[in-house]
Amino acid sequence: DDNGLGLNSFLSYVLDGGQTYYIIASGAVSSIGAYTLFLSQPTVVNLGGLSPVNPLPQTAGSVDVPRESDFYSFQAQVDGFALVELRAGQSSGLGPIVAVLDPNGGVLTFDDDIDFPINTNGWLTVGGLGGQTDYVQAEGFRSTTGNYLLSVSQPMISDLGMLTSTQPLQVNGVIGAVSESDFYQIQASAGG
Q1: Buried b (16+ CB within 10 A) or exposed e, 140-160
Q2: What is the DSSP annotation of the chain?
Q3: Among 97, 103, 69, which Cα is nearest to 84's?
C-alpha cells in the first residue's frame, strides 16, 4: 500500500515458472473507485558465478521510469559474504535503492543511503550465500530516474584461528575508504 507514486501500490516479487499466482485488488479502509492493474515480468540478467578470486564485472544500467526495477542474478560459489553496491552515474538524478533477494524472492537486505546526505548510493553486505542463486534488485528512490553502476564482489575472509579464554586474538587493520570492510573468521573453543 502506498509503495508506488502518490497513493498507488507497488509490489515486486520473484515468480516461479509454471506456478499459478492470485492477485487481490481492494481499496484501503473505506476508499472506492477505479484502478488500473499493471503486471510485467522483467528480464533477469545473470551476472554469473561469484567467488573471492572472481569478482563480477561492474554492470551499467538505468532506471528509465519511476519505480522501475532491474533484476540481476548471481551464484556465490563458496559460503561467505557478498558486497553489493549501486552507484548513481555521474550527473544522474537517480537515488539508488539496492536489495538482495533469496531464491524465493524474499528480501534478505536492502539499502538506499551509504551516508545520507553525503552519499546517497546503496551499499550492503549479505552473508551465507554459497551454492544458491540470489537476486539483486536495482531501483530509484521514489520518482528518481537515471543511470547507475552495479558492483557485486565476494571479499577474502582472513582466518584468525581459535579463540579461547586463555588466548585472545588481536589484529590491526585500516579502513581506507567509505564503505570498505575487512572480514575475519574465528572459531570459538566454547560458548559464552
Answers
A1: bbeebbbbbbbebbbbeeeee
A2: ---SSTT------PPPTT---------STT-----------PPEEEEEEEBTTBPPPPEEEEE-STT-EEEEEEEESSSSEEEEEEEEPTT----EEEEEE-TTS-EEEEES-SBTTTB--EEEEEE--TTSEEEEEEEESTT--EEEEEEEE----EEEEEE-SSS---------STT----EEEEESS--
A3: 97
Q: What is the pLDDT along the chain (192 residues), one digit of tens a residue?
A: 555 556 677 676 767 778 888 888 888 778 888 888 888 777 888 888 888 777 788 899 999 988 888 999 988 888 888 889 999 998 899 989 999 988 877 888 888 876 667 777 888 888 866 788 888 999 998 889 999 999 998 877 788 888 888 888 888 888 887 767 788 878 888 876
Is residue 80 within 8 Å of 62, Cβ to Cβ? Answer: no
Cβ(147)–Cβ(61) below 8 Å: yes
Taking the model in full, what pTM does it have? 0.70
40 and 67 in contact (C-beta within 8 Å)? no
